[in-house]
Write a structure and sequence with these properties.
With 296 residues, the protein is α/β, with parallel strands linked by helices. Helix content is 48%, strand content 18%.
Length: 296
């Protein structure tokens, strides 16, 4: 079995000891109740949770329901390990969102095999999700993912009075790169530039390939004036960076920006934001390229 970060939640010291010994080749954390479980989760997110059902206070079923209802922890796989072993008990555990249900007393080999099966299944699902949401060449998010994220973000911004900025980037004279140095050189520029931009953004910002040499991004919690400062700094640094070492290629980019302060009264707010950013990108390109435009 591969090594995993495993959180065991069980109120019986003997059960904790047995599981800790069995899983000793992994990184194991133990908790004896719901409060200890959430305290451990706040410190570090495990790969998988092994959860007892019959515990004092909040039982395992209720804890699993809380986990699945919290977006921070909802994707962590859960395996129930319980002495409650009727078919109805198993069904209730699985229906609440558990990935598997193991009856006590358990067989050691079976437990290890079931943990491996759940983790391998999660890996397969994660890979399918990555392929569905990521651009194959650059590894950043794809266009479909971006617009899905934007469609979810706008209602939340309306409800909670949140702000964010949207921008579109276009690599200047990229066709010349392909025509002069070939498409492999162009691909290297695309991959290295997006990696460069992504490293300059925060984890919760969203960068996606919009099409060809165009990229679209969402910067959360800031208006376009602050976004312009960030993107302009990246633009200046990018102009001095080699993005294709084989041909010592430098590139510049143009950018159009907008933000949520401009969408009041708009029927299709997503469409308005994207069209506004695109219009300003056109102004940046027609105005000489290698610049950021946030008005017009």
């Amino acid at each position: 079995m591969d090594k995993y970060n495993i959180l065991i939640v069980d109120d019986e010291p003997a059960n904790l000891y047995l599981l800790e010994e069995l899983l000793s080749e992994n990184i194991v954390t133990s908790a004896r109740c719901g409060d200890e479980m959430f305290s451990a989760l706040e410190k570090e997110s495990p790969d998988i949770i092994l959860l007892d059902i019959m515990m004092p206070g909040i039982d395992g079923l209720a804890l699993a329901g809380q986990l699945k209802g919290d977006e921070r922890f909802s994707e962590i796989p859960v395996i129930f390990i319980s002495a409650k072993n009727s078919g109805e008990d198993v069904a209730e555990g699985l229906n609440i969102g558990a990935d598997d249900y193991i009856r006590k007393p358990f067989n050691n080999a079976e437990l290890l095999a079931r943990i491996s099966k759940v983790m391998n299944s999660r890996k397969s699902k994660a890979e399918l999700y990555r392929k569905a949401t990521r651009d194959n060449l650059t590894g950043v998010f794809n266009r479909d993912y971006f617009f899905e994220a934007l469609s979810l973000k706008i209602p939340k911004a309306d409800r909670e009075n949140q702000i964010f900025s949207i921008g579109i980037i276009d690599i200047d004279h990229f066709k010349k790169v392909n025509d002069t140095y070939g498409h492999q050189a162009g691909d290297r520029v695309l991959k290295n530039l997006t990696r460069f931009i992504n490293k300059s953004l925060r984890e919760y910002d969203v960068l996606a390939r919009y099409g060809g040499e165009e990229f679209i991004f969402l910067l959360d919690g800031i208006l376009k004036s602050q976004a312009a400062f960030i993107i302009d700094r990246i633009r200046k640094q990018a102009a001095e960076t080699v993005f294709d070492p084989e041909n010592h290629l430098h590139v510049t980019f143009s950018c159009g920006l907008t933000d949520t302060s401009e969408i009041a009264g708009q029927t299709d707010k997503s469409d308005f934001l994207v069209k506004t950013a695109d219009r300003r990108l056109y102004l940046a390109k027609s105005g000489g390229r290698n610049r950021v435009i946030l008005e017009g």
